[in-house]
Records
---
Amino acid sequence: MEEKAMALKQELLKLLDQDFQQTHDQLARQLGVSAAEVAKWLKELENDRILVKCQPIINWEKAGLDDVSALIEVKITPQREVGFDALAARIYRFPEVRNLYLMSGAYDLAVTVEGPTLKDVAQFVSTKLATIDGVVSTTTHFVLKKYKEEGVIIEDEEADRRLLVTP
């Protein structure tokens, strides 16, 4: 029974990943269980920190609040006995940091940051990030336009590409 419940919880997570605004009743119908069971599983998933946060994807440019985003490649020197984790923890605590990933390849960490202006993001990199002991180098890439985010196309321009046909 536990395996079946785990499979249903995984399916529940997939459904939420597609559309987190579905009601318990809608989710229950798709899973073939009761809404009470869905509510119980959601609470368990939250308590176990498997379901961390449900968040909308907002087209901030259209909303008139267009912050500057940047992807920063960071090379670091791992610390003895804690590796990359201690430095990563220092970095992800900054409010400007939106995402932080340990990477394979040419750099160690990928950091995405946001700020009100290009100058604010540059200031963050030069005064806060690059000055941390153990940070060897940074390379900053500013986001010029968002086409797709979290699997969602931000603005589909297909309709705009068609030619107007007149008689």
---
Amino acid sequence: MKVSYSFLLIISVIISSCSSINIKKSEEQLVRIPYTSFLDNSDREYFLYLPKGYKESDKNWPILMFLHGNGERGNGKSELEYIQIHGPLYESWVQKRDLPFIIIAPQLHMFDLDKQGIDYITNRTTESIPKRLKTGTPNRPKPRFTYEKLNRIMNDTIPEARINFINKYGWNNVQEDLISMIDSTLKNYKADDKRVYLTGLSFGGYGTWHTASKYPNKFAAINPIVGFAFPNLIKSIAEKKIPIWNIAGGKDKAVPSEYFYSGINKLKEFGHHKVRLTIHEDTDHIETWRRVYAGQDIYDWLLSQSK
């Protein structure tokens, strides 16, 4: 039987059209998930980001939990959007980057820090929250340049007062909430339990260390940024040999890079060597995490890790 060239051409066009339809990804989504905090029984919400292509995909997606810094904490309701200012949620939702993770982004309780005269908390306004645009993306903040040379004293002894402050107001107080969010996501969404990652900046960097220390079986890799490990958190992390990429800023006055060495060295003492410590010598506290999350390296590294 002869088949005409015109017929074959029509079939080819139909197949091409169908292929074009099939490869179009569904749009990303950002939803609010309600929960009751184990800490104080308060009703709160957290953000859950579903990536492009999630809806039609039959694969299980990696989870990336993001813990924000001190300035973005709040009531988990009307103040929740402050956590869009920095980190993977800013990159994926505001800047519309195609990051292939289910992102869990909770908000830390205020713990009355708004009454203690901390300028970047008491004077913040909703105008600082970046908005997702219908078309295009907003301009990124201009890079911060620090010309001052720090008087670097290589003393890696972490002040006890700093440890006490972080423990009193930090993510360590809500770790049951965090693990419940991960477990709920694994149960209710197409998520991969072998690729659960944890990242955080500043207070969230400390929270990353704390949470991984208490629940070392949960995570395939962690990425604390401008937050160092307390020595008492190291043993359980080292025993499970969780891959770590810790990042500091060389011009960071808030969290000096010399404090990072004691935790990293302790990990090596316990025989854990899947550890990176990167110091961006030219960046301060804020510019360090802006650079890291705006780049691609950390996301590629996380995706390469699996339990």
---
Amino acid sequence: MKAIIIAAGMGQRLRPYTSDRPKCMVEINGRSLIQRQVDAYRAAGIEEIIVIRGYRGRQIQIPGITYVDNVDYQNNNILESLFCAKEHLFGDVMISYGDITFHPDLVKNLLVQQAPISLVIDPQWAQVYEGRDDHPIEQAELCNIMSIPAEGMLRRDKIHRITNVGKHVGAERAEGEFIGLCMINAPALARLCAIYEHARLKGLDQPYVNAPSLRKAYLCDLFNDAIRRDEFIHPYFFEEGLWREIDTVQDYERAQTSVTW
């Protein structure tokens, strides 16, 4: 198992805290977001960690980490940033956004999930957005989930399957928020890479799923493309209060008291 952290963004809404540093280097209670993630992965026994850098990326210098540079970070988005690390996209992998912090237990519990693709989903997402004035719900990567009876199991047992995920879902029908942390096994990762390469043959500036272009696509666009091809994507639900996204100054200030791990 390896971990890939997508940390190329500029973090414009976090200024002035990102005026002189990458977004992932902003500190919450004395530790940067990137160091917190590295510590969480290492606590779960994951030692191979790849960080995709962009804005002021040379400031990210953590021993024992492999770095990949997204030199076009100003013009592309999360999906293209991920595929800057194409040579590392094989085997079992965890992927995380660089602007989140999460409890180490999330990684440990994610490791035991059996689905080909598991997305960490916050079912209490609405509580996180209470009073979060600078980051509207419309920007949350929400999801729809279908529950079906598990074959050969008791009637009350269900298998949960994500049917739609991204900023287009809308709060009215959402059953959770994708926090930006997921696990993908080797066969599923190979299928996702093949789907991406098929889309890339059409051109970076062609529309892709819910994005205006592949160049501007999110990771969720790739997931939705895979869902349309009958890929099984499993939601891993967890207890509230074990993660935070740090996207705005308000998020940063609130995290100083809400992030206690």
